[in-house]
Amino acid sequence: MTSQDKDPVVVIGAGIVGVCCALYLLRDGHRVVLVDRGAPGEGTSFGNGSIITEEAVVPVQTPGVARKVPGMLADPLGPLAIRWSYLPKIAPWLVHFIRSSSPQRVEEVSVALAQLLEGSLKAYEPLVEAAGISDMIRRSGWVSVYETEAGFKSYEPMLDLQRRRGVNFEVLPAEELRQLEPSLAPIFCRGVFYPDVAHTVNNFRFVQELAAAFVRLGGEIRQQSVIGFQQGDAGVTAVVTEADTIACSGVVIAAGAWSKTLAVMLGSRLPLDTERGYHLTLPHAGADLRLPVYSTERGFVCTPLEHGLRIAGTVELGGLEAEPNWQRAEVLYRNASRWFPGLDRREESRWMGYRPSMPDSVPVIGPSPRHRNAIFAFGHGHCGLSLAARTGGLVAALLAGRDPGIDLRPYRPDRF
Q1: Mean pLDDT of 332-343
Q2: What are the tens digits of pLDDT across the range 279-322?
Q3: pLDDT attached to residue 2
Q4: Most exposed of 95, 140, 208, 367 (fewest Cβ within 10 Å)?
């Protein structure tokens, strides 16, 4: 029996990770059905910072983070904040988060991230070529900027971590930073340029184009909510939606922040939670930015897109149900205005979304402990766009029984 004669593989989640998994499975010869309650790219993939990077080997949790938790609770507008009302629910996640911040664990996590990030740009190549959108990825590099010497000094241990992982970067004095990105106000003392970084000119359209290519190549998309699974001796036999029951030969859980509930249905409880991120997009910003610029001190990025300037970032731990705190978007604007005085806010749009995050900053990629034909692919945190195609290739290899080419133990679902 060929793959086309079998029941389809069902991929749950039509964000960038799910779409890339679906495309790689289709390339493997499977029939594939992509299921999501929303249209492709309308979730977290709609509003990210549009960065595709292989240098993100520094986890969110770093040594000493435990001392910062009181400040996260005290300042609701800080770069990393915790809502008091959500503290009882996020507490178990925070325990894992703090435990993962020891120097030894941070080193292990950086190795795991580096292994996964290597080749992330190359993994996109067959997908964007098939979709005819290679021009949507710009390999401009990006630069991290520092307003104070103290801020730069505080990040130097993380630069050392990147050096140990072989990350390519160059530390720039103020004058060289101004030459690299002359649109920035002269308020920075240092910059760190990462040449091996790309961005997409429109992250939402990028997912939409890939999803359209998936359909042209024979895939099927169903806009339905998944409510359960049918399971047998051979594993998951069907995906149950609000409208239908889809018989399947395998299933991929790639539903981002909503994957936790689906994993529980398959017998796995994982400490997945969400980092609520915000953005502003300014169509008439007036900032002639050449490449993305990031602040580690303030926790946000400015990215030049085809439809305006994207100002995105910060982390708010507050779950899936609380209303957005739009003052955080105003903080993004005030921060960006320091870089680009006189930003034009006409026709601006604002957004809040949910990064699916594991407390050790390492995504879950691997088979369900209970069902070998169910593959988990979620929890990518800040690296969803960067790791989506790489994850798709790994998921296809796992379902085919091929050697994935890397040790997947650091990403296993039962590591906690």
Answers
A1: 95
A2: 999 999 999 999 999 999 999 999 999 999 999 998 999 999 99
A3: 56
A4: 95
Kindly state the DSSP code that residue 323 receives in the 8-state scheme.
Answer: P
167/181 Cα distance (integer angstroms): 21
Task: Scan for tokens 């990105």, then name that residue.
Answer: 181
For residue 414, the tally of other CB atoms under 10 A from its CB is 12
| Burial class of 296 by CB neighbour count within 10 A (0 to 12, 13 to 18, 19+) | middle
Identify the CA nearest to 364 among candidates 273, 275, 280: 273
Structure tokens at 7: 């029941």
137-192 pLDDT, tens digit per residue, is 999 999 999 999 999 999 999 999 999 999 999 999 999 999 999 999 999 999 99
CA atoms of 243 and 222, how far apart (whole Å): 10
For residue 212, what pLDDT band results from cuts at 50, 70 and 90? Answer: very high
- CA–CA separation, 299 and 283 (whole Å): 22
Q: Give the distance from CA 369 to its chain's centroid.
A: 24
Three-state secondary-structure class, residue 287? coil
Q: How far is CA 304 from CA 85, 146, 210, 292, in A?
A: 35, 19, 21, 6
Predicted confidence at residue 234, as pLDDT, reads 86
Amino acid, res. 114:
A
Map residue 169 onto helix, strand or coil: coil
- Closest to 244 measured CA to CA, from 8, 63, 4: 8
DSSP 3-state of 293? strand
Instruction: Domains for the chain: give ranges and CATH numbers.
Output: 1-61+100-138+198-272+358-416 (3.50.50.60)
Distance CA 9, CA 130 (A): 21
The gap between the terminal CA atoms of the chain, to the nearest Å, is: 38
Specify the pTM.
0.97
Distance of CA 314 to the CA centre of its chain: 13
For residues 304 and 50, give the distance between their C-alpha atoms in angstroms, rounded to a whole number: 9
Tell me the average pLDDT across 70-93.
Answer: 93
Please spell the DSSP secondary structure of 345-361, one letter per residue: -TT-EEEEEEEEE-TTS
Provide DSSP, 126-150: HHHHHHT-GGGEE---EEEEESSHH
Structure tokens at 268: 């796995």
The per-residue pLDDT for 408 is 97
